[in-house]
Every structure is written in structure tokens, then in C-alpha cells.
Specification:
Largest sheet: 3 strands, mixed
Helix content: 55-70%
Order of helices and strands: HHHHHHHEEHEH
Number of domains: 2
CATH superfamily of the largest domain: Cation efflux protein transmembrane domain
Length: 315
């Protein structure tokens, strides 16, 4: 089995496992949303209602992530030659955007409750909060695997981890209110939760936009990459280099390699060696390498489309 086939098979198996875990997390979270809304209304707790609203966005986030994962497992076709992998990035961007909207809503409601703090049923807040912590930890652990490699899964995981911290905060506020009657702590904790949600959302938004803008992955040093490629026997130079991400874990590269005039078989051997370097050192899954004997334009490491157009017009 080739390196490409092994990678594809592993990706498919991991995707199917993640789809099942997402579905289970979605069902558990949806059931608990109704429980928490009823408890929040009964106890007059903004912290619980805030957490219920956040949990509801988790249901939407998990559903969107589940749908995107099923879509990304579809094979490429004539209209989608890269397949549907970017669907996961769009889902991550949508999920993080809902987090921002929820955070702004929390700040608005907390402001009004600071002005006129209502009485909070602390016992209900504590009891439901403890149950929420348990459920949120379980659902977060269900989707944790793969979050470090998949931005879509990471956005869903951050949604759930945001719930873990928010419910812990709600429980702490409930305990303090129970013994002090400091009802203002309820909106205060909600604001802290909102700030945490905003920070989590920003990290996902920034990375999603970087991928959609086809930016160079932040952990890749292009100067070091060029040196590593140039160190392969037979490579005399590198130019027209572009590195971007289809998804967080799927990186693509295209480059022109300057070589001596040689047979096709020798050139194929150079391409294989360069591909091995790119995969093992920089996690580049797919590289398109064009071999040529003379550089088209000197010192054009990152040739632009405009430069290419002008050069053709001159010819």
C-alpha cells in the first residue's frame, strides 16, 4: 500500500469513528439543553440560562460538524477535484461565529442584571450546575480525539470545553450566593464565561481565515524548507514555491525544481526524495513538483500570477 493510500485509509477510518462520537454527543447535549432551560427559568439564574444557550449552540455546532465530516469523507469528483475537505473549515468558521454572537448576547443580558440583580435560587443552580459539568466533560471527551488535527472537530471541542468552564463557574457562583446572597455574582460569572467564549472563538476564526486565504501554515519556515529541498541530490534550485492548507492536517505544495538535463526516470527519483522530505519534516500530504533545467526568472522564489502573465505576454 502506498503512502497516499495509507493516509487516505487512516483518514476514512478516523472520520467514521468521529462521526459516531459526534452523533452521541449531540443527542446527550440536546436532552440536557431542555433540562437546563427549565432549571434556569425556575431558579431565575442567568448563569444557567447562559449555559443553556451555549449548550444549544453546541447542538448546532455538533450537528454542523457531523454534517461536514460526512461530507468530507466523500471522494473527489470532476467538479470538486480536492473533494469536500474545505466543508470542515466552513463549519469551523460558522461554529466560531455563533460563539461570538452568544458571547455578545451574554454581555448584554449581564449588563441589565448588574443594574437590577434578581434573586437566584442557589440550590437549583448548584444541583443542575454539577450535573452539567459531568455531562459536558463526557461529551467533550467523546469528541476530543482528532481535535488537534482537524479544525472542524477542534471548534466543536472548544464549544464543549467552553461549557465545562461555564458550568464550573456557575456552580462556584451558586455556592457563594447560597451563603452570602451576592446575587450579582451570577451575571459576573456570565461575563467571565463570555470572555472565555470570545477568546476561544477568535482562535478558530483566525485559523479558519488563514486556511481559506491559503496562507502558509504558521509552523512552516519557508527558508528552512527551501534549504531542505535544495539538499536533495540533483536539485540545483527552487522557485515558484507555494504552500497552503486544504484543511488543518492536509497541506499542499507546488514548486519548480531546477535540475540538470536528465532522463525522466532520474527526475522521478528526485521527485520521490523531495516528497519524502516534505512529508516527514513538514507534513505536506500532496506536492506538485515541476522539474526544469533553467529558471524562468532569477530570484523569483514566490512567482506571482501577474508575473507569469507578463512573462507570457513578452513571449
Amino acid at each position: 500500500m502506498t503512502l497516499h493510500n495509507q493516509t487516505h485509509t487512516h483518514f476514512y477510518d478516523l472520520t467514521q469513528q468521529t462521526v459516531r462520537r459526534l452523533a452521541l454527543s449531540l443527542i446527550i447535549t440536546l436532552v440536557f439543553v431542555f433540562i437546563e432551560i427549565a432549571a434556569g427559568v425556575f431558579s431565575n439564574s442567568l448563569a444557567l440560562l447562559t449555559d443553556a444557550a451555549h449548550n444549544f449552540t453546541d447542538v448546532l455546532a455538533l450537528a454542523l460538524s457531523w454534517w461536514a465530516l460526512r461530507l468530507t469523507s466523500q471522494p473527489p469528483n470532476q467538479k470538486k477535484t480536492y473533494g469536500y475537505h474545505r466543508a470542515g473549515i466552513l463549519a469551523a468558521l460558522a461554529n466560531s461565529t455563533t460563539l461570538v454572537v452568544i458571547a455578545l448576547g451574554i454581555f448584554y443580558e449581564a449588563y441589565h442584571r448588574f443594574i437590577n440583580p434578581p434573586e437566584v435560587q442557589a440550590d437549583v443552580l448548584i444541583g443542575v450546575g454539577v450535573l452539567a459539568v459531568i455531562i459536558n466533560v463526557v461529551t467533550a471527551l467523546l469528541v476530543r480525539r482528532g481535535a488537534e488535527h482537524d479544525l472542524n472537530i477542534r471548534s466543536a471541542f472548544l464549544h464543549l470545553m467552553g461549557d465545562v468552564f461555564s458550568t464550573v463557574g456557575a456552580v462556584i457562583a451558586g455556592v457563594i450566593i447560597r451563603y452570602t446572597d451576592w446575587n450579582w455574582l451570577d451575571p459576573f460569572v456570565s461575563i467571565l464565561i463570555g470572555l472565555l467564549i470570545l477568546w476561544s472563538a477568535w482562535t478558530i476564526v483566525r485559523e479558519s481565515l488563514d486556511i481559506l486565504m491559503e496562507s502558509t501554515p504558521t509552523d512552516i519556515d519557508l527558508d528552512a524548507m527551501i534549504q531542505d529541498i535544495s539538499s536533495v541530490d540533483g536539485v540545483r534550485g527552487v522557485h515558484d514555491l507555494h504552500v497552503w492548507s486544504i484543511t488543518r492536517s492536509m497541506r499542499t505544495l507546488s514548486a519548480h525544481l531546477v535540475t540538470d538535463n536528465m532522463d525522466i526516470s532520474e527526475g522521478a527519483s528526485i521527485q520521490t526524495k523531495v516528497n519524502e522530505v516534505l512529508f516527514h519534516r513538514y507534513k505536506v500530504n500532496h506536492a506538485t513538483l515541476q522539474l526544469e533545467c533553467d529558471e524562468c526568472m532569477p530570484n523569483m522564489r514566490y512567482c506571482t500570477f501577474e508575473e507569469s502573465t507578463h512573462s507570457h505576454e513578452k513571449n
